[in-house]
Amino acid sequence: MSEASPNQKRRRGRGKRGGRKNKKRHLNDEATPTTSWSALERDWFAGSSASSDDKIPDPLTETDVTDNGEGSTRSSESMDTLEHLRHLWVNFCKKRQRPGKQSQEWQPRPIQLQAWSILMPPNDASSSKRTQTCNMIGLSPTASGKTLAFGAPMVIGANLYTMKKQPGSTTTIIYGIVLVPTRELALQVAKELEAMVSSLPQNTKTSGSSSIRVLACCGGGSQSTQDHIDILKTKGGQHLISATPGRLADIMEKLGRQQQDKEIIIRPRYLVMDECDRLAGNVDLAQQVTAILNACMSPDASLAFFSATYPQKVQETWKEWMQLSSKRCAMIRVDAVSMESNNNNKHNRKMQKMESDNNQQSQNDDAAKVPAKEGAEDKEEPADDSQEDDGTKKQTTKDAVKNDFLSRIPAYLVQTLHVCSEHKKPKKLITTLDRIRKEEQASQYHRQKRLGVVFFGRIKTLQYMSNFLKKQPSYNKNYACLELHSQLPQHMRNKNMQTFQSGRVTLLLATDIAARGLHVSNIGFVINYDFPGNLEQYVHRCGRAGRDHDPDAGRLPPTIYSFFTRSLAPMAPDVVSLLEACKAWVDPNLLALVNDDGKEARSKNKPKHDQDGGKPASREDKAGANEVDEEQFSDEDAFPELSAQKIVLKRASNVSDASSSSGDDSD
Ligand SMILES: Nc1ncnc2c1ncn2[C@@H]1O[C@H](COP(=O)(O)OP(=O)(O)OP(=O)(O)O)[C@@H](O)[C@H]1O
C-alpha cells in the first residue's frame, strides 16, 4: 500500500476517536475455495467508520486507495450480509466464468472492496434500521467492475429488507435506483442487476430473491411512462430501477398526480448515479437528476456516484447533490493518471480563446437543440461531447487537467494517435480498417474478425461515412457496418446493438452515445475518427475496447486508433501528457503541434500539394496540405479504388467542417 494521504490519516484517526471496534468476521474459506476471500478478510471492513457525532465533512473528502484495495473507511459486519455477499459473489462468478478460465481469476476488484465496505447494509440481522451510514463517490477505471461494486449492496439490501417484510403485502417499494445517461446503458445495468438478483441465496427465510424485481425505465421503446407505472403496480415487491433521468422524472411526476392509495412507494435506500460526471455535465440531465433527488431523498437513502472520470467542472453539482443527504461521503479513487503539466502562457492564451469560441459555438448549438418539454422522457446525453450544454467543449486547460480525475487507461490498450488532415480522414479510415483486417488474417489466433467501434463527433459525418463505406466495392467483405446514434429510432438502436454484439456485423459507427458504460466483450479496436472534445471522453471511448482481454491468449492487443487534426492543436499538450502518462507512443507531429504550433512539422516536410489533386477545399484542407501527412500507408497504391473517390473525399471534409451547427444529436 502506498503511504497514506493526509486525508486517509485524518479519517483513520477520526474513526478511532469514534470508538467503534474494529471487528473482523472470518469467512468460510472452505465453502468458497475458488475466490480470494483472504483479500476480503484482509481489507474488508478493516477501516473505521465515523462515529455518529462526527461533524459531516466536506462531501468531497478524499480517500486515496491503491491497487490492493486498502484504505477502507468503515468497520461493520454481519453474518447475514456477508453470507449474502458470499453467495452472490460465488454464483455471479460462476455465471460469468468463460469456458476454460479458472475461477481464481475473479478476485474482488479494489473499487468493489471499497464500495462493499461502505455501501453494504449493516449487519445485525435483527436490526430494524438497515441503513448504511455513508455516501460514496467511486472513481475507478473503465471495465473495473463498478456495476457489481454498486449493484451487490443494493441487491443484498433489497433481499434483507424483503426478509423483514410482512408476508402478503402487495405494495410496490422502489428500493434502489440507478440513473445513467443513455438508454443502452439503462438496459445493460438492469440486466446486470437481474444477474445479481438471481445469484442471491434461494434458501433464505422468505422466498429469497423472488420478490425483488428489476425494471429498466427509459424512453424510445415500446413502453410508455404509463406502461412502466402499470408494471410497477401489478408486480409488487421490491423494485430496483435502472433508468435514464428523463423517464424516471416523468414516472415520478405522473405517479405524484395519480397516486391516492400509495400502491407504489418510492423511498429508495440506494440512489446510484453511474457515469455521474456525464449526468452532472449536461444541463438537462442534471436538472432531471436534481428533481429526482429532491423528490425521493430520505434520511435512509445513500447516494453513490460512480465514474472513471471526474472533471472539475462537475464538482459543484456533485457537491450540491451530496448535500441533499445528511450522511458523510467518502471519495474512493482507484488508479488515477497523473499528468505532468508544463504550463506555458502561449498555450493558456490559446486555450482561453478556444474555450470562449467554443462557448459561443455551444450556445449557438444549444439554441438549436433546446428540447420540447413534452417528451422529456426521451432525453439522454448528447451524442457529441462538443455539444454539451455547459459550454465545456474541449475544456482542457492545463489547470483543469491538473485537477480533473482521469482514471488510468488500461495498460493492455495500445494507443495509436496520428496527426492527420481533416479531408484525409475518410481515406485513413479505409486504410486503418484494411490494416486491422490484414493483421487479423496474419494472426493464428483470429479466426473471426474482431469487433470495432468508430466514433464520430457529428451524426452527419457518421451518416456520410456510413454511405461512403457502403460505396466501397468490398463493402460486404471488409466494411459492413451498423449505425448507433440518437436520430435512429430506439428499436433500430436496440437491433443494431444486438447485431453488433452477436458479431454478425463487426463494425459499429457510433456517436458518443456508445462511449460510456457499454460492455461488449470482444471489441478489439476503437477508432476515434473525430477526436473527442475532451480527455474524459477519450478515456471512456478507449474503455470500450478489450474489456475481457486475456493477455495470455496470444491475441492481438486491443488498440485505439485516433485521428487528430490540426484544428485541435490547443488540446495537443494535454493529449501528449496523457499519452506519456500511459507510456504510449507519441506521434512526432503531435509533439510538433505542441512545440511550435506545427511549424516544426511544416519545416521538416516540404509543402506539398493536396494529394487528392487540386486546391484544398477548405481552410482546414489548406492547413492540412502544409501539415505532415501522418499516413505511413501508401494509400493510393494499396487501394486504387480510393483514387476514384477524390471528389467524395473533399466533400467529406466539408461535411465534417460545416456540420457544427446542424444535424446535432439532441438526445
Ligand atoms: N471482480 C471481477 N473480476 C473479473 N471480472 C469482473 C469483476 N467484476 C466485474 N467483472 C466483469 O468486468 C466487466 C466490466 O464490468 P463493468 O461493466 O461493471 O465495468 P465498469 O467499471 O462499470 O466500466 P465502465 O466505466 O466502462 O462503465 C463485466 O463483464 C463484469 O462482469
UniProtKB/TrEMBL annotation:
<feature type="compositionally biased region" description="Acidic residues">
    <location>
        <begin position="627"/>
        <end position="639"/>
    </location>
</feature>
<dbReference type="GO" id="GO:0016787">
    <property type="term" value="F:hydrolase activity"/>
</dbReference>
<dbReference type="GO" id="GO:0005524">
    <property type="term" value="F:ATP binding"/>
</dbReference>
<dbReference type="GO" id="GO:0003723">
    <property type="term" value="F:RNA binding"/>
</dbReference>
<dbReference type="InterPro" id="IPR027417">
    <property type="entry name" value="P-loop_NTPase"/>
</dbReference>
<comment type="similarity">
    <text>Belongs to the DEAD box helicase family.</text>
</comment>
<keyword id="KW-0378">Hydrolase</keyword>
<feature type="compositionally biased region" description="Basic residues">
    <location>
        <begin position="8"/>
        <end position="26"/>
    </location>
</feature>
<dbReference type="InterPro" id="IPR044742">
    <property type="entry name" value="DEAD/DEAH_RhlB"/>
</dbReference>
<dbReference type="GO" id="GO:0003724">
    <property type="term" value="F:RNA helicase activity"/>
</dbReference>
<comment type="function">
    <text>RNA helicase.</text>
</comment>
<feature type="compositionally biased region" description="Polar residues">
    <location>
        <begin position="69"/>
        <end position="79"/>
    </location>
</feature>
<dbReference type="Pfam" id="PF00270">
    <property type="entry name" value="DEAD"/>
</dbReference>
<keyword id="KW-0347">Helicase</keyword>
<keyword id="KW-0067">ATP-binding</keyword>
<keyword id="KW-0547">Nucleotide-binding</keyword>
<dbReference type="InterPro" id="IPR014001">
    <property type="entry name" value="Helicase_ATP-bd"/>
</dbReference>
<dbReference type="InterPro" id="IPR011545">
    <property type="entry name" value="DEAD/DEAH_box_helicase_dom"/>
</dbReference>
<feature type="compositionally biased region" description="Acidic residues">
    <location>
        <begin position="377"/>
        <end position="389"/>
    </location>
</feature>
<dbReference type="InterPro" id="IPR001650">
    <property type="entry name" value="Helicase_C-like"/>
</dbReference>
<keyword id="KW-0694">RNA-binding</keyword>
<feature type="region of interest" description="Disordered">
    <location>
        <begin position="597"/>
        <end position="640"/>
    </location>
</feature>
<feature type="domain" description="Helicase ATP-binding">
    <location>
        <begin position="127"/>
        <end position="328"/>
    </location>
</feature>
<feature type="compositionally biased region" description="Basic and acidic residues">
    <location>
        <begin position="597"/>
        <end position="624"/>
    </location>
</feature>
<feature type="domain" description="Helicase C-terminal">
    <location>
        <begin position="428"/>
        <end position="602"/>
    </location>
</feature>
<feature type="region of interest" description="Disordered">
    <location>
        <begin position="338"/>
        <end position="399"/>
    </location>
</feature>
<protein>
    <recommendedName>
        <fullName>ATP-dependent RNA helicase</fullName>
        <ecNumber>3.6.4.13</ecNumber>
    </recommendedName>
</protein>
<feature type="compositionally biased region" description="Basic and acidic residues">
    <location>
        <begin position="390"/>
        <end position="399"/>
    </location>
</feature>
<feature type="compositionally biased region" description="Basic and acidic residues">
    <location>
        <begin position="366"/>
        <end position="376"/>
    </location>
</feature>
<dbReference type="Pfam" id="PF00271">
    <property type="entry name" value="Helicase_C"/>
</dbReference>
<feature type="region of interest" description="Disordered">
    <location>
        <begin position="1"/>
        <end position="80"/>
    </location>
</feature>
